[in-house]
Design brief:
With 370 residues, this protein is an alpha/beta fold. The protein is built from twelve helices and four strands; from the N terminus they run E-E-H-E-H-E-H-H-H-H-H-H-H-H-H-H. A four-stranded mixed sheet has the order 1-2-3-4. Strand 3, helix 2 and strand 4 form a beta-alpha-beta unit.
């Protein structure tokens, strides 16, 4: 497309409107354009890229030459780019040009911005739903497909996600039970009901704290690892290589992890239940002179099987959330090594947010049931 430049002096600034492909600028055209711009004064020269359909590295080089010539002539220069792709290219290649800014107030129409965000959110939700559906389908049907069972990948994931996380989960759970017993013990001691520490710790841990805490720890440990692995493969085009070889990336990378975590997370939750109650027993015995046998008996009387199963059901749902969010952010990773770190952080944050949302929904549902 032919390159055209128009200079529009205004009261507040001088606008240079560029149209067409910058790489098609004729030799000497930039010098002529600089000569057309009015003499330097207090006004700013704004280079508007609204009429440029595409912008590549060569176009950025041309833009750099134009900006440098204007600055050498004594002008103060700013760039204005409405196109988001233009801004990304300039930020990537334009080391010697000002950071591009958005157009004037006309581009900040609330309805347009709301519509753009709505479309982006709709597309993201749709992609996430499709990934979740494909992951669940593959994880459920994979064991019944002889050639694609991926038992070795599932076993390695069980060891990495389960065995490796057990010491951390046990330590944190013991401390949580210890803290809960200490915090509640002083208040209950005032009313002579120190034995009720067993009720409070047992119910709080089995119904809420153990599954939630374990899921958050696993999201930070195993979810981030999965996102980093898939993200690194994505930026190095290994995911595309798997597709070319006829291997479904979801079937190979995500489904075995989901099956492993669906088995591991409830088991880790049981470990957290037991160890947290042990922390409460320790406080009751050492601080409030409660016999361990009496404490455990009171816990068994108050905590029902339904309370434990409710926590395990939460853990199962959390495993789906963790793997799906981690895989979604991994497949969306772009931008090299910096992008891997960025999307890994985003994966952990979003996983924790969705874990808490799902936990709130489950708690409301289980509370509403008779």
């Amino acid at each position: 497309m032919k390159f055209v430049a128009r200079v529009n002096p205004r009261d507040a600034d001088i606008v240079v409107l560029l149209e067409g492909g910058l790489e098609h600028a004729a030799p000497g055209a930039l010098g002529q354009l600089i000569d057309v711009v009015p003499a330097p004064d207090d006004r700013m020269v704004i280079i508007d890229l609204e009429g440029v359909p595409r912008l590549g590295a060569l176009g950025v080089a041309t833009l750099t030459t134009l900006v440098g010539g204007l600055q050498d002539a004594g002008h103060q220069v700013r760039l204005r780019a409405k196109n988001r792709a233009h801004r990304r290219v300039i930020q990537a290649f334009g080391r010697d040009v000002p950071r591009p800014e958005l157009p004037g107030p006309e581009a900040h129409v609330l309805i347009e911005r709301l519509g753009e965000r709505t479309i982006q959110t709709h597309d993201a939700v749709l992609r996430f739903a499709l990934l979740a559906q494909a992951t669940l389908t593959s994880a459920i049907t994979q064991p019944f497909r002889i050639r694609r069972r991926r038992h070795d990948l599932t076993q390695r994931s069980i060891v990495a996600m389960g065995v490796g996380a057990t010491p951390l989960v046990a330590l944190i759970a013991f401390l949580i039970g210890f803290i809960l017993a200490l915090q509640s013990g002083d208040l209950l001691k005032t009313y002579g009901q120190t034995l009720l520490i067993a009720d409070l710790v047992g119910l709080a841990v089995t119904k809420e704290i153990a599954p939630l805490l374990t899921a958050v720890l696993v999201a930070g440990r195993s979810g981030s690892s999965l996102t980093a692995e898939i993200g690194t493969m994505n930026v190095s085009e290994e995911v595309d290589a798997l597709t070319v070889m006829g291997v479904d990336p979801i079937d190979y990378l995500v489904a075995p992890r989901l099956r492993a975590l669906a088995l591991v997370l409830p088991m880790l939750t049981i470990v957290a239940d037991v160890v947290a109650i042990a922390g409460g027993v320790t406080v009751g015995w050492l601080v409030y002179d409660l016999h361990p046998g009496a404490y455990i008996e009171q816990t068994a009387l108050r905590v029902e099987v339904g309370d434990v199963l409710g926590g395990l059901l939460k853990a199962l749902c959390f495993s789906v959330v963790i793997v799906t969010v981690a895989a979604y952010q991994g497949f969306a990773t772009a931008g090299g090594a910096a992008g891997v770190g960025k999307y890994t952080t985003r994966s952990v944050v979003q996983s924790i947010i969705w874990i808490i949302i799902v936990d709130a929904l489950f708690t409301a549902l289980l509370t509403a049931l008779p």
